[in-house]
Each structure stands twice: as C-alpha cells, then as structure tokens.
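Let's study a protein:

===
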Amino acid sequence: MTGTRGAQPGTYVTEHAPCWGDPDFAVADNRWKNGKDLVAICEPVLYVCSGCPYRAACIRQVRPAKSAFDGVCGGRVWLNGVIVSALPDADPSELPPPVIRKACGTAAGSRAHRRAVEQQCPDCEPFYTPAANPLGEADDDTQQLELPCVA
C-alpha cells in the first residue's frame, strides 16, 4: 500500500507498513503492458507482505476490488481488482467480510462473494469453487510463491 492511494475517510492509515511509499506496490500503468508484466514486477516484492500485521488493514484501506487496483495489496497481486497471485500464507479472513445477499446459500451467492472479492458467508461456503486465474494460466502451482530464506 503506498501513499494515500485509496484512503477513505475514517480508515486507519497503515503508514508503518514496510511497503509504505514503495512504487513497486502500486505499479504505474506505464511500467507494464499486460498482466504477466505486472506480475513480473510485483512478485519480487510480494515477500514483504509475508507476516505483515497490516495485510487486512491494507485491503480495507485500498479496497482493491472496488477501485480496480493493480499492484500488491494485503499479500496478494491484484490486476484490475482481481487476485492473480498470492502468498502461500494469504488468509481468506483478511478479505472483507461477506455481504449477505438474497442469493446467499446458492451457487449464485457464492459467485457474488467471489466477484466482490470478499469472504464466503457460511451459507455459501458449500458452493464455493476457486475461480480460474484471469491471466489464463492453466497451472495453479504458478500462484504459489516460494519465499526466499532469510538468515
């Protein structure tokens, strides 16, 4: 999360996060041409989010799904507000809580939670299936990152 991008009135500004102010986290549009370029820029810095206590606050402040964010936020790489890569320890509970809809308890309700990039409600959990990677990668192993050993 960088600067005041996405700051909303009443949100806690996570100025103490290790990524604060780093341009590789909110990548300027002129630095990449397609999703694979964006991921190539973001994945090398994604490790900074590992163990960061501000990941959920970062997602609440930036609101990547609503703002169609491109870059690193909350331990995930986002492309147009959709998660395209994540740290292995990315926890779904860091995402915003579910909005209860009339469709909850159905496959349509589960899809609505996924489109909104929020947690699944208990009624929709049985219908949840992970979405395909928007970058078109067939192998899900490409989304799991190996963290460097830090001695």
Notes: The chain has one domain: 29-143. Confidence is low (pLDDT under 50) at residues 1-11, 138-143. Residues 35-46 form the longest helix (12 residues). Residues 29-143 form one domain.
